[in-house]
Structures are given as structure tokens and as C-alpha cells.
Specification:
mainly alpha; two-stranded parallel ribbon; 7 helices; 45% helix
Length: 171
């Protein structure tokens, strides 16, 4: 879910495995003060986004709380044709779309350690829009298991990240 730490994990993974390629989703949402166009997202006008969608330029796309997000198909297809490993930071529905196109794709579902951590992360992401915060928070709620299960998942994820450079990556 939004605020779970996907982007932070991808950044850490790229620091350890710079040979990986990562997609940058297009979005129609307004740019935040701390963001750069083309670095954090290509910020795209809604008409352009829909034209790209109609041309099937996106591998996956979704409307999230009134804004559109989409992952371009071309860069991923080019990277895979070259034998590169590609990392895509998307939500569950985006992952389902990617798996439909690439059933051999590997997926990882990232959860925040607890609801309080999620709320704190979202509060940092959503500066002005309290309504959006409530929507994100509600959308992110799902069964997480016991505290022990959450701790185990967190330990497993941290261990996987530590070992990332030792794992042979292939397409």
C-alpha cells in the first residue's frame, strides 16, 4: 500500500545493486515542492496521460485518489530484451497487470511494520490534503497478522536486502 516503504526499499536496493534498472511512473498529480519532474515522476498533463493510455504505452496504469499513475511499457521491454533486471514500484493492482503480461516476473509485497508507522509515513507524504490522508489510510488497511508475524516479515525483508548483492539476478 501507499506509505509502506516501497520507494525507500527500492532506493536501498539500487544502492546495493546499481546494475538494476528501475521504472519511474508517470503521474497526473501535482508535483510536491521536494520533487523534480522526470526524477521522482514525469508529471504529465491529464490529456497527455489519457492519450498515452489509448496508445497502449502503459504496461499498467491506475487511478489512485483522483490522480493517474502509469508505468511505461517501452523502457521495460527494452531492458528485458537486453537481459537487464527491472524493478517496478507499483501497488497490488499494478503488479497484477505486470504479472498478466510477464507471468515469470518476481513480485514482493511490502507492508509497513504497523499502522502507526503507516500513518507517520503518510503524514509526511500528504502535506495539504487531509481527505486524501484518510483515503490512503483506509485503503491501506488489511489483515497483517500478529506482531510476531510482522516482526518476522520485517526481519526476512531486511535479510533479503542484505543478501541482495549475493543473489544472481536473471530474467
Amino acid at each position: 500500500p501507499s506509505g509502506a516503504g516501497k520507494t525507500s526499499l527500492v532506493k536501498a536496493l539500487l544502492e546495493r545493486c546499481p546494475e538494476l534498472q528501475v521504472s519511474i511512473s508517470h503521474t497526473t498529480r501535482p508535483r510536491r515542492e521536494t520533487e523534480q519532474d522526470g526524477v521522482n515522476y514525469p508529471f504529465t498533463e491529464i490529456d497527455s496521460f489519457h492519450a498515452m493510455r489509448e496508445q497502449q504505452d502503459f504496461l499498467e496504469f491506475a487511478e489512485v485518489f483522483g490522480n493517474w499513475y502509469g508505468t511505461l511499457r517501452g523502457p521495460i521491454e527494452e531492458a528485458l530484451a537486453e537481459g537487464s533486471v527491472f524493478v517496478v514500484d507499483v501497488d497490488v493492482k499494478g503488479a497484477e497487470s505486470i504479472l498478466a503480461a510477464y507471468p515469470e516476473a518476481e513480485t514482493v509485497f511490502i507492508m509497513p511494520p504497523d499502522e502507526q508507522a503507516l500513518r507517520e509515513r503518510l503524514a509526511g507524504l500528504i502535506e495539504e490534503d487531509v481527505k486524501a490522508y484518510t483515503g490512503y489510510s483506509e485503503a491501506a488497511k488489511m489483515p497483517r497478522g500478529t506482531d510476531e508475524e510482522k516482526a518476522e516479515r520485517s526481519k526476512a525483508l531486511q535479510a533479503a536486502l542484505r543478501q541482495a548483492t549475493d543473489v544472481p539476478l536473471g530474467v
